[in-house]
Specification:
The chain is of the alpha/beta class. The chain has one domain: 3-Layer(aba) Sandwich (Rossmann fold), CATH 3.40.50. The chain is globular, with a radius of gyration of 20 Å. It contains 13 helices and eleven strands. The strands form three sheets. The chain has a seven-stranded mixed sheet, sandwiched between helices. Strands 1-2 form a two-stranded antiparallel ribbon. Strands 3-4 form a two-stranded antiparallel sheet. InterPro entries: SAM-dependent_MTases_sf, UbiE/COQ5_MeTrFase, UbiE/COQ5_MeTrFase_CS. Its EC number is 2.1.1.201. It is a peripheral membrane protein. Component of a multi-subunit COQ enzyme complex, composed of at least COQ3, COQ4, COQ5, COQ6, COQ7 and COQ9. Interacts with PYURF; the interaction is direct, stabilizes COQ5 protein and associates PYURF with COQ enzyme complex.
């Protein structure tokens, strides 16, 4: 695996699994997810000697340590029904939003992607499919016009790995929640993704990777759940290579007053009900709705990204600002 990975444990010890991935030897840290949450929040407080600080969990005010624990519990609770609920809540539109993110990303063969808070793998799967399609188009253009490959040849190319991730494209899915990663790994098996993909337990606020390791950092519908957004952005900047790109897909602020009222009514009155009916969990989806309203708007989030050291930061709205894609570069 081209991107080196370091232990995120902060209590003075490192534990690794060594295994072979995509033909190369690599080491993945074995880090308990609750240990990662502890090191990102409590350990920092212990080192600084500061008093316990408060933050928000939806519309509630809680301690930072309590938020980390409760967010973990939310996603542990909804993991099995997460993708079904995404379809139900957005009427399937989340798929178009994620496709739009990949269009903006426009990855090329050989790209190294860090998909943070990417538990169930949606972005990484799209990334690998996008790169595969680029390789297929490149092979098609390179072939003489009188030697158009047959469907048998194309099929054989996919089966032997000459298309897809043959030139080293890699997606690393990093998530703090083991249950989400478990669901994602099973989805990868079901969808036939056997190469170009790795799964790592890690906290967005203290990523277990070396500096300058990735070409693209993506985070979709995850950064609003982070306790310290500024620190997560600084970590994104650290692990990106010079010239690397930061991309975030997140719920944002609707500017149209009529659409905003309709959106609020739908969010607060229907989404928790769907959560109860489909996932048996009203409270988790109530929190997710509230967390959207507490997240900075487009301009405020853009300023946070710039403060983290990114350049050429811009955003564009989707569905009237229900979600936005923010982009920036590490120079």
């Amino acid at each position: 695996m081209a991107a080196s990975i370091r232990s995120s444990c902060s209590r003075g010890f490192s534990v690794y699994w060594t295994f072979f991935f995509s033909g190369s030897k690599c080491r993945i840290p074995v880090v308990d997810v609750r240990e990662s949450a502890w090191s990102a929040v409590s350990w920092r407080r212990y080192k600084s000697g500061s008093e316990e600080r408060s933050t928000h969990f939806g519309f509630e005010t809680v301690s930072e340590e309590e938020k980390a624990e409760r967010v973990y519990q939310v996603f542990e609770s909804v993991a099995q029904k997460y993708d079904v609920m995404n379809d139900a809540m957005s009427l399937g539109v989340h798929r178009l939003w994620k496709d739009a993110l990949l269009h903006v990303m426009n990855p090329s063969p050989g790209t190294r992607l860090l998909d943070t808070a990417g538990g169930t793998g949606d972005i990484s799967f799209r990334f690998l499919e996008y790169v595969r399609s680029q390789e297929a188009r490149r092979a098609w253009r390179a072939a003489p016009s009188h030697q158009t490959p047959s469907w048998q040849q194309i099929s054989a190319s996919y089966q032997t790995g000459r298309l897809g991730t043959g030139d080293g494209a890699l997606a690393v899915v990093c998530d703090i929640n083991k249950q989400m990663l478990k669901v994602g790994r099973q989805r990868a098996v079901d969808l036939g993704f056997s190469t170009g993909l790795s799964w790592v337990v890690g906290n967005a606020e203290e990523l277990p990777f070396d500096d300058d390791s990735f070409d693209i950092y993506s985070i979709a519908f995850g950064i609003r759940n982070v306790t310290h957004i500024e620190q997560a952005l600084q970590e994104a900047h650290r692990v990106l290579k010079p010239g690397g790109r930061f991309l975030c897909l997140e719920f944002s602020r609707v500017s149209n007053p009529l659409l905003s009222r309709l959106y609020d009514t739908y969010s607060f009155q229907l989404i928790p009900v769907l959560g109860e009916v489909i996932a048996g969990d009203w409270k988790s989806y109530q929190y997710l709705v509230e967390s959207i309203r507490r997240f900075p708007d487009q301009e405020e989030f853009k300023a946070l990204i710039e403060d983290a050291g990114f350049y050429k930061v811009q955003f564009h709205n989707l569905t009237g600002g229900v979600v936005a894609i923010h982009s920036g570069f590490k120079l």
